[in-house]
Amino acid sequence: MQYDLIIIGGGPGGYVAAIRASQLGMKTALIEKEQLGGTCLNRGCVPTKTLMHTANLFGELQGAAQLGLDIKETGYRWDGLHQRKNQVVEQLRAGIAQLLQANGVAVYNGMGSILDGHTVQTGDDMLTADHILIAAGSVPAIPPIKGADLPGVVTSDALLEQNGVDCQRLLIIGGGVIGTEMASVYAALGKQVTIVEAAERILPTMDREISQNMSMILKKRGVEIYTSALVSEISQQEDGLCCHFTAKKEEKTAEADTILLSVGRRPCISRLFVDSFAVDCTERGFVMVDENFRTSVPSIYAVGDVIGRIQLAHAAESQGIAAVEHMQGQPVSVRHDLVPSCVYTTPEIAMVGITADGAKKEGRAVITGKYVMSGNAKTVIEQQDRGFVKLVFDQESEVLLGAQLMCARATDLISELTTAIAAGLTREQLAGAMRPHPTFSEGITEAAEAAVGQSIHSMPGRRR
Q1: CATH class label, 153-263
Q2: Domains in the chain: boundaries
Q3: Is 320 helix (H, G, I), strand (E, B) or coil?
Q4: What's the average model confidence in pLDDT over 254-268?
Q5: pLDDT at 455 over 90
Q6: What is the pLDDT of residue 333?
Q7: 437 catalytic, yes or no?
Q8: Beta strand 348-353 pairing with 341-343
């Protein structure tokens, strides 16, 4: 079977690249060993956010009396939560299949093994193509902790597939994005949650103020958090599991029914290459690529989690599009270097571009504008937790360089700011745009105007 492009992996990086390749006139085959949609749709972003939406709604109902609502009883059915989640996943998966079919992409279900720079075997089929794109994704990493293989010790896959894991006590090893989101879901449902994080703070890759605020909010909701904590062992107890760790040089233990290992992900490259052929990879197994996502073999490209950069669905999508366009000699149509990061906790968290701390490390002079959302009308109306909008501008040109948001709808608002950075908008242009009232987006205007006092040559702000 001869194609112009063979793609291994049906996740966001793979199926979006396949559709773009088809649009550019390439005869394309896509190989997926499990289900279309990859980790994001089946065991990641989508099921997590579906559960979180339901859990947050349940949490809001607990405060219904404050809104003047008389609701006698509230409760939930664990199987019902996951039935809804599975329906969402199945509906979106079917949509992807229809898109691929409509664009004439040949889909093969099975493992794909790369034999050389132009040949891939899947089952009994031997496929050849001018180019191969690896979008094989990643799987949860298992840390070398004694007892990590005990029953009840799980990865995010177990919590998100089928009916998940119902438990009263959940301990999470790893306070990154996945760990923090799952802590929010289980805490909102009234479960006892503990986070054990090796770094000095949860969400260690995020803006420091965001991490500190999220930690305070989770603790307020009953989540127990240990930072600068190193786990030494997981042991089996009569009534569950016990996690042994050292937190700030003090030996501690914490008991749980279920322990979630959430310490990152590793590339899914097992059986991807035959013994006699492979592309260059890092020591950790990630596929090495250049700025155009081309591997050490010129005809083979790689995108998404498997290359070990920013492991986000939208990053993989933009990389896949860029790779296909480079194969065809097309100008790149997507800014794949400007990637917004989102955390779907309550309040939501979103970041894009540079932080003030990051600018300081680079020796770059910046000005910042921050607005605390407790004064925002929509925040008050919807009884949202304390949050803020922080904007970072170049000191001389006042061009927007970065944004950090922790507020309701932050994951939607960040798109406006990503566009503003890509377009090179200034503080004055951002502040001068009219935004409707009452909305969360007014926080952007306020934050832009808050930077006036630090500005070298700005007009006075019109702060409310």
Answers
A1: alpha beta
A2: 2-140+266-327, 153-263, 347-454
A3: helix
A4: 95
A5: no
A6: 81
A7: yes
A8: antiparallel
Would the pLDDT of 7 be above 50? Answer: yes
Catalytic residue chosen out of the listed positions 53, 118, 326, 437:
437
* Domain 153-263 shares a fold with domain 347-454: no
Q: What is the pLDDT of residues 54-107, one digit of tens each?
A: 999 998 888 888 889 888 888 999 999 999 999 999 999 999 999 999 999 999
Whole-number average pLDDT of the chain: 93
Strand 169-173 to strand 366-372: parallel, antiparallel, or no bridges (unpaired)?
Answer: unpaired
Cis peptide before 267 (omega within 30 of 0): no
Nearest to 137 by CA among 381, 325, 299, 304: 304
347-454 architecture in CATH? 2-Layer Sandwich (3.30)
- Mean pLDDT, rounded, for 326-335: 89
pTM of structure? 0.91
- Of the candidates 232, 57, 222, 267, which has an alpha carbon nearest to the alpha carbon of residue 143? 232
How deeply is 310 buried, as exposed, middle or buried, from its count of CB atoms within 10 A (0-12, 13-18, 19+)? middle
The CB-based long-range contact list for 239-244 (8 Å cut-off, 24+ gap) reads: 240/152, 240/169, 241/147, 241/150, 241/152, 241/153, 241/171, 243/171, 243/173, 243/194, 243/196
pLDDT band with cut points at 50, 70 and 90 for residue 464: very low
Q: Report the 10 Å Cβ neighbour count for 237.
A: 10
Q: Which of 156, 146, 134 is nearest to 46 (CA)?
A: 156
Is residue 366 within 8 A of residue 356, CB to CB? The reply is yes
Find out whether 85 and 50 touch, Cβ atoms under 8 Å. yes
Six-digit token string for 361? 């490390």
Give me 190's structure tokens: 């009234």
pLDDT band at 453 (very low <50, low <70, confident <90, very high): low
Q: What is the CATH topology of the domain spanning 2-140+266-327?
A: FAD/NAD(P)-binding domain (3.50.50)
In sequence order, which residues have a C-beta less than 8 Å from that of residue 335 and are 6 or more positions away?
Answer: 318, 422
Q: Strand, coil or helix: what is 15?
A: helix
